[in-house]
Write a structure and sequence with these properties.
By secondary structure, the protein is α+β, with helices and mostly antiparallel strands. 31% of the residues lie in helices and 21% in strands.
Length: 597
């Protein structure tokens, strides 16, 4: 059976990622980008769907693991009856090189390792042609299928039934390097690289980046790791920020709520930018803004809520039959049908993030401010249009209160850009539209009899996204209406002390099955507690939530409290950025509303 989701650590070079299990198996690897087809897909099936396992041969060996401080260099320490050895695994930060390195180092005694390699290209739909191209001194395997090729160096392996296996032994002070390099199949393989140099450069790069994190609070280690995850999910070349490194890890184990998160949601990317800006990272913000300009280029009426890593628009959702799904949770999907939805909150999220960048000193250009004005014109044209909401409901659109508030926020930030920063624009019109939205939300998005905001107009349900109303300054955190909404959430959405996004039993999402508590929502609740005077409750919930991270600090989308396991795609940007915001609130930061009440 595939390992639990929390058993996986991530390797990344800010262009792609590998997931490595505690048992030393790389079960997910897509090359050369996050959203490329997999060459190892055991995560969504079994070993027959592709993996590369490197572990001590001794079946009684024990392993501990950790990231080298403030890097994504993973150390697996294997202890056996005959000795101790460590495997250092990393993806080099090295220009355009697409490589994964596994360095074995002998610590004491002698340790035998077994390497087992199953290459299955194109989501396990293509069995590559594999041949030996090295020698006994410098062994190498070359595998080719269609446009893709990899060369695996460093371990002598022999083939049987489309699997390559081999053993190697390291003694104290000795070691060997194994590597996998991807390249286009019409080109020659890349030459072997200097692993010492790549390892040192990769360590230095990550440590220099992490050393710039500006945070002083009780959860600093968690904040640093979370910001590093957000950086890892930000593509070094394009500036696109993926929502997670995986597709189709289930929200409901054994169910159909399995989605592809390897794309750039404008909302999630905007929230990530806010988190990075608030901790002093300006360059990545300017990089993402350029990505945004390229992605949205053209007529704003063609705006999508998500794009590919380089701004691709064609994200047609398909179901794969070549991968049976994580522990049988089918279907496995690539692409995402939500890309064609209208989600009214997205413009507001982008406007809020770009204001944060402006406040932090990122200068506007003629193009960047023109883009924002075009987005406000888009919001005005769609002012009365129902939407699918932040949770991408797959039933008929509604006027979701959170979406309506984010439209309010979009016009509010437009007004502030003109009045506070002197940018050209029709502040009077935008102020009138902002005020119109507030009147509408107060009248239809709030249930005065029950004393709480509602999920959508005409509903009596609550939704965890309503916690964001205070974050963007629509209401104060201690406003009685907000406190009443929180009280209703605690009654209707709380499961074992954690928040669900909404009640799936209401049928609002049009999907079968249920889901587990959504980690970002509970982090939002921490922020709400901290900013409304419930600091002890905030600290207790924050401590519990951080305990759901795995042993190397990674969080997935959801958490199955009864099963004691992570659920959904991993590592999840929204979970980590919400952690950062919650930690900032506990450290006394003001949050997204700035000094506004």
């Amino acid at each position: 059976m595939t390992a639990p989701i929390e058993d996986y650590a991530m390797l990344s070079n800010c262009r792609m990622a590998a997931l490595v299990s505690r048992g030393g198996s790389i079960d997910w690897l897509c090359l050369p980008r996050y959203d490329s087809p997999s060459i190892f897909g055991a995560l969504l099936g079994d070993q027959e769907h592709g993996h590369w396992t490197l572990r001590a041969s001794d079946p009684d060996a024990t392993v501990t693991r950790f990231y080298e401080d403030d890097t994504f260099v993973l150390v697996n320490r294997w202890e056996t009856a005959t000795g101790v050895a460590e495997v250092r695994e990393f993806m080099p930060i090295d220009g355009g090189r697409v490589e994964l390195v596994r360095r074995i180092e002998g610590i004491s005694g002698r340790v035998e390792f077994t390497s087992e390699l199953r290459l299955r290209f194109d989501y396990a739909r293509a069995l590559p042609w594999v041949r030996q191209v090295g020698s006994r001194v410098t062994p190498a395997l070359l595998a080719i299928a269609g446009p893709d090729a990899v060369i695996v160096r460093g371990a002598e392996m022999s083939a049987a039934d489309h699997v390559h296996r081999g053993t190697l032994t390291v003694a104290e002070g000795g070691g060997t390097d194994l590597s996998l390099s991807w390249f286009p199949s019409h080109l020659d393989p890349p030459q072997p690289a200097d692993v010492d140099r790549m390892l040192e450069h990769t360590r230095s790069w990550w440590r220099a980046w992490a050393g710039r994190v500006d945070h002083d609070g009780p959860f600093k280690d968690e904040v640093v790791r979370s910001l590093m995850v957000l950086r890892a999910l930000t593509h070094e070349d394009t500036g696109g920020i993926v929502a997670a490194a995986t597709t189709s890890l289930p929200e409901d184990f054994g169910g159909v709520r399995n989605w592809d998160y390897r794309y750039v949601w404008l909302r999630d990317a905007a929230l990530t930018i806010e988190a990075l800006v608030s901790h002093g990272f300006i360059r990545v913000t300017a990089h993402w803004r350029q990505w945004l300009l390229r992605a949205i280029a053209g007529d704003p009426k063609d705006l999508q809520i998500m794009y590919g890593l380089a701004g691709e628009r064609d994200l047609v959702e398909r179901e794969l039959t070549s991968l049976p799904g994580y522990q049988g949770a089918a279907p496995v999907r690539i692409g995402n049908g939500a890309s064609y939805q209208y989600q009214g909150d997205v413009i507001g999220e982008v406007m809020v993030a770009l204001e944060a960048a402006r406040v932090a000193g990122v200068e506007e250009t003629d193009f960047s401010w023109a883009l924002q004005k075009a987005m406000l014109a888009f919001a005005e044209r769609h002012l009365d249009k129902p939407d699918n909401g932040i949770w991408e409901m797959r039933r008929e659109p509604q006027k979701f209160t959170h979406s309506r508030v984010m439209i309010w926020a979009a016009f509010d930030r437009g007004v502030r850009a003109v009045r506070d920063f002197g940018l050209p624009g029709d502040a009077e019109k935008w102020a009138a539209l902002r005020d119109q939205m507030r009147e509408e939300i107060d009248a239809q998005g709030y249930d005065a009899q029950r004393g709480h905001f509602v999920q959508h107009y005409g509903s009596t349900e609550v939704d965890a996204s309503l916690l964001l109303l205070a974050q963007v300054g629509f209401v104060a955190h201690d406003d009685p209406r907000m406190l009443g909404t929180v009280a209703e959430m605690e009654q209707a959405l709380m499961v074992d002390g954690l928040l669900r996004r909404y009640r799936t039993s209401s049928g609002v999402d049009g999907l079968a099955g249920t889901e587990n508590p959504f980690l970002a929502c509970s982090f939002w609740l921490v922020e709400q507690y901290a900013n409304s005077g419930r600091v002890d409750d905030a600290m207790a919930l924050m401590t519990r939530l951080c305990g759901f991270a795995n042993d190397v600090g990674l969080l997935s989308e959801e958490y199955d409290v009864q099963g004691g396991r992570q659920a959904g795609n991993t590592p999840q940007a929204l979970s980590h950025l919400a952690l950062v915001r919650a930690a900032d609130a506990l450290a006394g930061h003001h949050g997204r509303a700035g000094d506004r009440k």
